[in-house]
Amino acid sequence: MGCIRNDNLPAGGPIAEVIVDVPVLGADKPYDYRIPPDLSGQVQPGSRVAVPFGPRKVQGYVINIKGKETHQGQLKHIEAVLDDQPPLTEELLALSEWMSEKYVCFRSTAIQAMLPSALKARTTKEVIESPSGEKQVVYEISDNVTARRVSYVTLLKEAKDVQRLLQELPKQALKQRAILGYLLEHEGKVMLTELLQACQASRSSVQSLQEKGIVTIATEEVERDPYAGRSFAKTDPLPLTPAQKEVFGHIIKAIEKEQFQTYLLHGVTGSGKTEVYLQAIAHVLKKGKEAIVLVPEISLTPQMVERFKGRFGDQVAVVYSRLSVGERYDTWRKIRNGQAKIVIGARSALFAPFERLGLIIIDEEHESSYKQEENPRYHARDVAIFRGQYHQAPVILGSATPSLESYARARKNVYTLLSLKERVHGRALPKVEVVDMRQELQSGNRTLFSRHLYQKIEERLEQKEQMVLFINRRGFSTFVMCRDCGFVLQCPHCDISLTYHKVNHTCRCHYCGHTERQLMRCPNCQSEHIRFFGTGTQKVEEALAQTFPGIRVIRMDVDTTRRKGAHEKLLHAFGQHKADCLLGTQMIAKGLDFDNVTLVGVIAADSMLHLPDFRAAERTFQLLTQVSGRAGRRQKPGEVVIQTYTPDHYSIQCASQHDYHTFYEQEMRYRFQKGYPPFYYLSLLLFSHPDLTYCIKAAEEAANWLKPRLSKQSQVLGPVAAPIPKIKDRYRYQCMIKYKNESQLSRLLMELLHYMQPHIAKYHLQLQIDMEPQVI
Ligand code: ADP
Ligand code: ZN
Ligand code: ZN
């Protein structure tokens, strides 16, 4: 295996420490490799390299270069350097070490999170025999995606000389004539494929022109930019309001002093936070530095992108999940080589390989999507603070509804609190009305719309104003039940009921995708009285059409926005007033800023409140506040109608009064009584296995190992069945660790992983460690 070329290297020479991209317990430590003399200039800390590892050749990352080792006679050597420039900076290397310790994950997994997928090792299905006879997965080096190169044909002669040449060419050289003619028409430079097609010519015709020194064929790199060819109207900074000025002043001071500081910017919806971000970034650019702006994926709307591109043009790189692998790779290189100065994107944009970072902004900092729910299970807030400290740059956490954790930290002066209490230029926050749906029911209204909301919708239709209707399908999905015996149709692989999809008359599991045909008879009692309960977007759409004949509705949910660009198209159509009503799930709760929207309706505010999650009230409050914020953002005042079965709940009451502080106080009391964050930390261990008894036994074994190793004040709760006790035919049990101060916890949990290794490797137990679970 490998090449023999370097096997007789003279001893001496430097050694590289390499993390191999093989995420297996035990392989996750640095290995020493010799650096052959012909690569010595290229191998640097942060380089991605190909190295032999056992019988395989894998990719790895150089984390350090050190001097001679005595035993280096036995060392293998680096076989190749895979990129022109090391993809990882020294800072990112340090960050990966910190992440692997803090979140108990492999160093290679942390590094993977930082790189565009084009550079990640691919796992293939192909298997090889390992020395011990076991079949193993091969981790292949990623060399499949590279820059896109295109061949161009360029005319080397002046136009008048070409005219003369055309006369000199033999009559039968029709193709060569056509080629020269086409080149003349197109300013002397055309893509080769285009030229051949336009002139119906073959490559050899171009080659013979090249041999005569008339044209040249050369390949050039073409950037894959999803925004190429789009123009954005240039915007100028707005004169700041006094409140904005004050906030801006604080941030500028920190930028000037190159001082790390975390600010919590608490500003009501429409208070001008984004304008402050834009002007702070302009300041950072003037100092020759770079900025990262994180927004939740769902609020990465065309409107948001337009605001940044409109102010800063091509210096802005946009990073989000819908980029193709190639687009992502090109965007990443634009950042790495310094062409882009500002990155705006979802969670992973936080790893932009900037070297002169001057500012990090996390907008809507309370969003749960800032927590990654797969390894490495990091929270963007913590990573941003690491980077801010490293670069001595300020970090701004912005929100109209800060997370309890962040607000509590601001109260304790761990973060600096800045606030914008009013909307720009005194525009009013919308008037919110809470409608008690129990009373509606008592007075005989069984429809989805209260009389109040019905009337408001009618008014809007008459006045030709627009509305946004919000329905949260997540916690209240339609389920299928037999009215005679109460049988509920469930997924055979997961402990969860199936959701009815009307379009194709199927019942689907939202966890594993299992699908069944629409039920005609109850499998339990053969009754035909099957009913579909709950409310989803599709059902509301249907009800709207029946109740308000002629209403034009744009529905936005996962089903209507699956295709690339669909999201933008729908929003654009709504902005053009092609519909009266925008109906959707969470994805419409944020970032939208439409002139003509004067009514926001929440069909069922309780749907999130009753989820088995200690953050349910906080999420409900945040969501209702965000949704309400979509109304009346410009000149026209807005109105909000919230329908609910629990009108007195404090999260609903406080949201309707735009009262963050009362909500905060009340929720903090509840968290204190129950011993939840931010008063205690929680970490979660999740065990899963196809066999229930085995799963419970393994979880108990782990809990018993852990308990005596924790300090007395800490608790291990469980093991108990997880909220969804079975997914994809695997049973799930969990332990919760509750603690105030447990500085060695990460290290202990890594030890636990090693201790449980026999179960994991031999018996396929899965053990997930989540240091800061967002959903419990
Ligand atoms: P937020 O990010 O807090 O929701 P935005 O920055 O989007 O607030 O501002 C809300 C609206 O007010 C936007 O339409 C924005 O263009 C406008 N706006 C913001 N700052 C100013 C200002 N200083 N003068 C005039 N209009 C402003
Ligand atoms: Zn039945
Ligand atoms: Zn399922």
TrEMBL record:
Query: PANTHER family under this entry?
Result: PRIMOSOMAL PROTEIN N
* Segments forming domain Helicase ATP-binding: 254-420
Transmembrane region(s): none
Enzyme Commission numbers on file: 5.6.2.4
Question: Any idea which positions bind Zn(2+) 1?
Answer: 482, 485, 522, 525
SMART domains given in the database record: DEXDc (SM00487), HELICc (SM00490)
Q: Report what the protein is called.
A: Replication restart protein PriA
